[in-house]
Design goal:
alpha+beta; 2 domains; about 35% helix; about 350 residues; 13 strands
């Protein structure tokens, strides 16, 4: 009897400890990023350092884009040896969650599929899984401020670290072409794979749950815009939110709205995710707006935005994939409305 009571007491203490641990604020990922960045830098040659390391205030820090540019800032994966590549991707893994890292690396690998689909075309030669670039801005130290960019076609990840904390993680851009694989392309790329499925399906779920009257407010245009706005600009779009406010949604619909937000938040590390969610909770989910443009049918151009006081999500699927299938080419981005790159928005 005493042993049973002791076992019960120990179990209660363990559960209480686990609950308390779950409520602790996640540790800052900046420390691990700084250590991984220092390891990456240590393995570079002097010539490589001249390419990969730039001053913190260099104008290239806010020069971002996701198109297949012929040249970019930073050190290209193609120009790294195996150990350097391992260190670079270790750094990337510390900057993202496991889910975000998986998406980022799959987006890179999709370039091999694009190269096959676009064989013989003008841009075919720049479709390359190794055409991704790592750039550090400033010295990655345990207590200083420094920046990181990992960028290439359909990927632009931008961070500012200060001490143990990631103080900026935007713009965060993920894209996918094809959005859905319509054929098999090897063991890891089977027909039906969708790298950004959660980002798309969560919005479809909310749109489907709206009443006809709510849809009239949420659907702001019959035709979707050609792309997300202000690509390549340092500042996030500043136009007012449009569409349907969460204050006019039911509790179940707000839960679906939260699922959209969480699909993006899951891409970053737990501490960065916690900061994003804390800012949203502070403002209240009731202050978020949802808007949709274009068709509500798959394979027809569509676009949505989720906008709160602190953040903006834009998702666009209007372009054909490289095989010519309509609306099978996704662009998605998360902006900090107070300012990307740890820079305040100019008033």
């Amino acid at each position: 009897m005493k042993l049973r009571r002791l076992t019960l007491c120990v179990s209660v203490l363990i559960v209480a400890a686990l609950v308390g641990f779950a409520r602790l604020k996640p540790a800052g990922s900046g420390t691990e990023m700084a250590a991984a960045a220092a390891q990456f830098v240590a393995g570079l040659t002097d010539q490589q350092k001249s390419v990969a390391l730039l001053p913190y205030d260099a104008p290239q820090r806010t020069d971002w884009h996701y198109i297949p540019k012929p040249a970019r800032k930073g050190l290209q994966v193609k120009d790294m040896n195996p150990d350097q590549r391992k260190a670079a991707f270790e750094l990337l893994s510390k900057a993202l969650s496991a889910s975000g890292y998986g998406k980022a690396t799959k987006i890179m690998q999709l370039e091999a599929i694009l190269r096959e689909l676009e064989k013989g075309r003008v841009n075919g030669q720049i479709r390359d899984p190794e055409r991704y670039y790592f750039t550090l801005f400033g010295q990655p130290t345990a207590d200083g401020r420094w920046g990181l960019s990992v960028e290439g076609h359909h990927l632009s990840l931008n961070f500012v670290v200060e001490g143990a904390q990631v103080i900026s993680s935007t713009p965060t851009f993920f894209g996918s072409n094809p959005a859905e694989l319509l054929a098999d392309y090897g063991p890891e790329f089977k027909k039906g794979l969708r790298v950004l499925a959660d980002e798309e399906q969560s919005a479809y779920a909310l749109l489907k749950a709206l009443t006809p009257e709510q849809r009239k407010k949420a659907i702001v245009a019959d035709k979707a815009p050609n792309d997300v706005r202000d690509a390549g600009l340092a500042e996030p779009p500043q136009s007012p939110a449009v569409g349907l406010p969460a204050s006019e949604m039911t509790a179940d619909q707000v839960a679906l709205l939260k699922a959209i937000v969480e699909a993006y938040v899951r891409n970053v590390t737990p501490d960065v995710a916690a900061k994003r969610l804390a800012a949203i909770e502070k403002d209240g989910y009731q202050t978020i707006w949802f808007s949709w443009s274009g068709s509500d049918q798959p394979s027809v151009g569509h676009d949505y935005r989720v906008q709160g006081s602190s953040f903006l999500i834009e998702f666009n699927n209007t372009q054909p994939d490289s095989a010519g299938n309509l609306a099978n080419h996704v662009h998605s981005v998360w902006h900090d409305l107070s300012g990307n790159f740890a820079l305040p928005v100019k008033k």
